[in-house]
Specification:
Blueprint: H1 13-18, E1 22-23, E2 26-27, H2 28-34, H3 45-58, H4 61-68
Antiparallel strand pairs: 1-2
InterPro entries: DUF6000
Pfam family, one: DUF6000
Organism: Streptomyces rochei (Streptomyces parvullus)
């Protein structure tokens, strides 16, 4: 399967739902990358963790594949 942006294959909503949703003004991917959610003093830790767990349980194989196999954003 060739790499395509999720919007090109009908899964544009997954980027907003699983990648760019914000916590404390930061998109999820930056919170994950920086490990900020691991700090006990970050006010959004509980909400972030619950959303992450719920989304991990709810994402479909097709949605996950659309994120993994996409081309990088330009």
């Amino acid at each position: 399967m060739p790499s395509q942006h999720p919007e090109e294959i009908g899964y544009g909503h997954v980027v907003e739902s699983y990648v760019t949703r914000t916590y404390g003004g930061l998109p999820r991917y930056l919170v994950l990358n920086g490990g900020r959610f691991l700090g006990p003093r970050w006010w959004h830790t509980t909400r972030f963790t619950w959303h992450l767990l719920n989304d991990a349980a709810a994402i479909t194989d097709e949605e996950l594949e659309s994120l993994i196999l996409r081309q990088p954003f330009n």
